[in-house]
Amino acid sequence: MKTFLAIFCCIFFAMPFTVYAHGLSLFSQEKKLIASYSDHSPAAGADVILADVNGVIIFQDKTDEKGMWKLPENLETIPFLIIVEDSTGHREKITWEEFLKGHRRGFFDLSGIRVIIGVVAIISVGYTIQRILLKKRT
């Protein structure tokens, strides 16, 4: 029975699952900032903070119901950083240069993070299978 349960657990945990990590992502295009979560739902009503190099807040606004924020025309100082933060604690930053160039910014958009998660998953499954096979032999 223990062997069956161990094999079942290995197969169950080795199956690919869709994980819905709820991270905040930022996209910029045509002087608009689009804030959305990993599941592509908009970050409506999120705070948009423009700060200078010293971290002093220059301008503060909110995203609309589609998670969009448009750059105001009457900005006196050029900001260094744009910070988007929602009421549940999600926070993401994009530099002014990235915003103007039309970059995408989010935790899971970094390929290094995806590689690390994949390697850890493969090692974990391999280690679990090895432990079960070693227990079976003794």
Protein model, in words:
It is a single chain. The chain is an alpha+beta fold and 138 residues long. It has one domain. The chain is built from three helices and eight strands. The chain has helices at residues 2-14, 96-101, 111-137; strands at 24-29, 32-37, 47-51, 57-62, 68-70, 81-85, 91-95, 104-106. The strands form two sheets. The chain has a four-stranded antiparallel β-sheet. Strand 3 and strand 4 form a beta hairpin. The protein is elongated. 14% of the residues are buried.
Keywords for this structure?
138 residues, alpha+beta, 4-stranded antiparallel β-sheet, 33% helix
Major sheet attributes: 4 strands, antiparallel
* Secondary structure: helix percent: 25-40%
Tell me the span between the first and last alpha carbons: 16 Å
The number of helices is 3
Sheet with the most strands: spatial strand order: 5-2-1-8
Mean pLDDT: 80
Helix and strand succession? HEEEEEEEHEH
Coarse structural class: alpha+beta
Low-confidence stretches: none
Number of domains: 1
Count of strand segments: 8
- Overall geometric form: elongated
Q: Determine the strand fraction and express it as a percent band.
A: 25-35%
The radius of gyration computed from the alpha-carbon positions, rounded to a whole number of angstroms, is 22 Å
In short:
The chain has helices at residues 2-14, 96-101, 111-137; strands spanning 24-29, 32-37, 47-51, 57-62, 68-70, 81-85, 91-95, 104-106. The chain is of the alpha+beta class and 138 residues long. The model has no long low-confidence stretch (mean pLDDT 80).
